[in-house]
Automatic annotation (TrEMBL):
Source species of the chain: Lasallia pustulata
Transmembrane segments: none
Domain DUF7580: 287-551
InterPro entries referenced in this protein's UniProt entry, alphabetically: DUF7580
Superkingdom of the organism of origin: Eukaryota
Name of the protein this chain belongs to: DUF7580 domain-containing protein
Alphabetized Pfam families for the sequence: DUF7580
Annotated spans, Disordered: 239-260
């Protein structure tokens, strides 16, 4: 819930890291919370529950304080009497222990009710929005932001030292949190060593290291007039002076929001959220945060007074200091992307063994060679949901230009063989600046057939993830190949149709409906165009939401 009412993930993490921050007293956030809890009596119930929780906590605090030992030893009659009174109250507290336990349990039930109220409001956030254009706007914004970010990264790599590969970390966060903010927090990892992962199984060197950044976009608007002017001035000065590294730009408009805050009731809600989520942390596979970063930035987010316009991304990453804000990139079309060191993802080679593709994971059964632990069906469904979100957010963009498949999605594998399924990623490669001038072939434009092929690939991937095996391992696959066993133009489509019919009995009606729509394009439209508002809404309703339902059915496993 806090994610949906704050301006960015950076604000949210800063507030969660410092519950005494002034940001919790910001009346604007209270208004946003009222808008989220817009149901009949929802906000009133929330406010009354928190008031009751505060009252009970205050009473308990006073009772406990009355049982504290006196500051000084009893050296007089009055002090001795006070000391005996304290001892008597402590004895009373111990005798009434059972009653106190009941009050604590009742307090826990009140906290659970508040958590349930917030969870239900978050789940209903999308349904409470105007249905006609909300979904398409969210995904369209994501595509524009992703394309702009890719351009900015390519433009920022002005070095001529080596090829670079960078990763876009995928997630399937609910789109309700992006409805009001209108932006997405993409995570991008930049390798600090020259390394390209081109094979399915690539071992990691013990010194491999990555810099992971959370990105936020600032568009060309009145609010960013200052930053644009400064950026243009920097570009002009760059052509005059040969300065290596990053150029200093003091854009006041992109400095982090000044200390803003929420009311004490929201502070309690954050504490409740942290308490409720703590029991789930052990279930999730997460990357360790840098202890040094936590010590130096206790508030969670710090932005330099003068963020840097990054003119050489390679140099900026290699020479990064202790700042949590690396700087910002510009895409050449009026949009800027701020790069913050990610606190939630920290890749360390000490715990990782290799990078492995989804194709290699699924093919191990057919090859009879185990290279990793088999994934549970719930893990595989979670990956399918993530890839479904990625298709709507990233296709067609430079991150997902054409029909990508299982060999284009990668995971990290721990040394004990466990696959980190929470953070699949796509790999992109950029060539040195000196190679930008080599003649390039004609750029192939996307057409509507590509959109249908992308949905076909998604349908095949969903079936492969459901059954834990690749379509090429099925006996009927070779029937649709040429005489030499090579795939033909319609091989994937014909094999997918046959497998989809067989999968109905094994996977049930839910899986059948999802895959049938993807493979045959059965969304009630003449042509499939993932840039079209109605098409995006149909795919979301017919694929993403049913997958969320299937995933919920398998929780926990």
């Amino acid at each position: 819930m806090l994610r949906s009412i704050t301006d960015s993930d950076f604000d949210m993490k800063g507030m969660m890291g410092d519950l005494q921050s002034d940001r919790w007293n910001n009346p604007e956030l209270v208004l946003r919370l009222q808008q989220r809890l817009c149901g009949d009596g929802e906000f009133e119930s929330y406010d009354a529950s928190l008031h009751s929780i505060h009252t009970n906590l205050d009473k308990m605090a006073k009772k406990l304080k009355s049982c504290e030992s006196p500051d000084e030893s009893p050296d007089s009659m009055s002090q001795g009497g006070f000391y005996l009174q304290k001892k008597f109250r402590k004895l009373q507290f111990s005798v009434r222990k059972k009653r106190w336990q009941e009050q604590v349990m009742d307090l826990g039930r009140q906290i659970d009710r508040v958590g349930k109220l917030l969870g239900e409001a978050e789940a209903l956030a999308l349904a409470r929005q105007p249905r006609s254009s909300t979904i398409s706007q969210v995904f369209e914004q994501a595509k524009c932001q992703a394309s702009s970010l890719h351009k900015a990264i390519i433009k920022g790599w002005t070095c001529s030292c080596k090829d670079h590969a960078f990763k876009l970390v995928l997630d399937h966060s609910k789109i309700g949190g992006h409805l009001e903010s209108g932006s997405h927090a993409f995570k991008v990892s930049f390798p600090l060593r020259s390394r390209i992962w081109g094979r399915a199984e690539t071992l990691l060197h013990q010194k491999d290291e990555w810099h992971t950044s959370d990105t936020a976009i600032i568009s060309n608007s009145d609010k960013t007039g200052t930053i644009l002017a400064k950026a243009e001035e920097t570009e002009r000065s760059r052509s005059i002076s040969a300065v290596s590294g990053s150029s200093l730009v003091p854009p006041s408009s992109i400095s982090h929001a000044s200390s803003s805050s929420l009311t004490s009731s929201l502070s309690t809600a954050a504490t409740i959220a942290m308490t409720m989520s703590s029991s789930l942390r052990s279930r999730k596979v997460s990357f360790q945060e840098s202890e040094q970063f936590q010590r130096e930035s206790p508030s969670g987010v710090t932005v330099n007074e003068d963020p840097l316009l990054i003119s050489d991304l390679c140099h900026a990453i290699q020479t990064r200091g202790k700042e949590t804000c690396l700087g910002f990139l510009e895409d050449g079309e009026g949009s800027y992307h701020i790069l913050h060191t990610s606190r939630s993802l920290s890749f360390t080679s000490t715990e990782l063994d290799r990078v492995i593709s989804l194709g290699a994971i699924l093919e191990q059964k057919a090859r009879g060679k185990l290279i990793c632990q088999e994934l549970s069906r719930r893990d595989r469904l979670s990956i399918a949901l993530t890839l479904s979100h990625a298709l709507l957010k990233l296709y067609p963009t430079p991150w997902l230009p054409r029909r990508r498949g299982k060999t284009d999605v990668y995971f990290f594998q721990r040394k004990d063989g466990e696959i980190i399924t929470e953070n699949p990623f796509l790999l992109c490669k950029t060539v040195p600046t000196k190679d930008h001038f080599w003649p390039k072939g004609p750029v192939r434009k996307e057409n509507l057939h590509d959109h249908a092929d992308a949905l076909l690939s998604l349908g095949i991937l969903i079936m492969e993830l459901w059954f834990g095996e690749v379509i090429e391992s099925r006996t009927f696959w070779k029937k649709y190949c040429d005489n030499e066993g090579n795939e033909k133009g319609l091989t994937s489509l014909m094999a997918a149709i046959e497998w989809q019919k067989q999968a109905k009995d094994e996977g049930g009606v839910g899986l059948h409906d999802i895959t049938h729509r993807c493979i045959l394009g059965n969304f009630g439209m003449t042509t499939m165009n993932l840039d079209d508002e109605k098409c995006v809404g149909a795919v979301y309703d017919g694929v993403v939401k049913p997958l969320e339902g299937l995933l919920a059915y398998f929780w926990p496993v």
